[in-house]
Every structure is written in C-alpha cells, then in structure tokens.
Amino acid sequence: MTTRTATVILAAALAAALPGRVFPAGDPQPSAIADYVDILYPATPHRDAFRLRVRPDESAAELWPEDGFSLELWNDYSPPELQAALPFSSSYSDYNLWLADLTGDGREEFILVSGQGRGTCARSETLTVYSRDGAAFTALTDLPFSDYFGSGVRWYYEPTFVRDGDRFILELKLDWDDYSETYLFFPELIPGEKLIVIDLQ
Prior knowledge:
- Helices cover 0% and strands 52% of the residues.
- It contains no helices and 15 strands.
- The protein has strands at 7-10, 13-16, 21-22, 31-33, 37-41, 50-56, 68-74, 82-89, 95-100, 109-116, 124-133, 136-150, 153-164, 167-176, 195-198.
- The strands form three sheets. It has an eight-stranded antiparallel beta sheet with strand order 4-9-10-11-12-13-14-15, with no helix packed on it. A five-stranded mixed beta sheet has the order 3-5-6-7-8, with no helix packed on it.
C-alpha cells in the first residue's frame, strides 16, 4: 500500500489530490485517495453534485486515535449540508479509497482498503465495497486484501479497474514479496485465488 499521500490516477497521469480539487465527472480511471481530502464531484445525469471529505475522527478509531476517519458526503449548496457519513478505522492511519461505478447505475460505489493490527508483521488489510443510498452506506462485499506470510514478507492484491461500457469491473491480481532470503516464511498462507473479479452488475 502507498504511504499517506493523496493521489489521483487519471489514465496515465498522476497528480496530488489537494483540498478543494474538482474531479471531472466520468474520469477515465477511478480516483485513488489516501489522505484527508475535500473533493468536489460535479453533477451527472444520474446523481447530484457532491463533495467528498475524509477527515480525522478519533471516535472511529479501534485503538490509536489517529487511526480513526470519517468519510463524508456533502451537497454542493451554500452552506453545504452533510448527506451521509461512514466512520472507519485503519491502522497506522493508512488507507486507500476509490470511487467507481461498479453496478452500472450511474452512481459511484466506494471501494475502501483499510488496515487492521499493529506491530511487526502484524498488519493485514481488508477491501470493502460500499454502495450509498441516501444517508446510508451498505457493504456489498468484503474480502482479505493483504497479510504477512513470513518475517517481513506479505502477499497482497493489485487492483485494476477494467471499463465495461458505462461501468467498471474490479480485478484483483495476487502478488507477494520475494521471500528467497527470508529465514521464516509460510507459503501455505498465500491465498490460492490468483485473480479475483468483482463484477456487480
């Protein structure tokens, strides 16, 4: 996973996601976000404009206060009004978030990778796909995303968003660290699924 740096992946370009940035509707690739942000998503024919904010929220932390976040959707009125909120915790304050339409209804799903556990070789990650209906977020699917299988080595999935018409299919390809020089490792802990396809249509 990346460090806590906000990034936006638009096709082959890589740019910082700064507070107040505007993401054009219908990005060629979903946006990758990994920090506190304030981002405006303009209106589309299928939904109103909204502002995505990710801010610190100590009440959401499982253990360490800095691990708590609140994912918030605000309307674009003046003054803005909070429409929905999703508190979550991620260890070492490290998370990744993508917004992408996986169902084909013209509205983005929220793909969140969050971490659990602290300590040497103790952190694992989970990927959860959320949909939003009004003020509620609903988890559509969740699965293990990364974990350690030995001393300093881990397996992980690399996400790729594949466009299918007006929506995306999420493909997760398994990879792992080189353990040829690791003195303690358990390859049997590496998942057997080399490719996971999340197709929600």
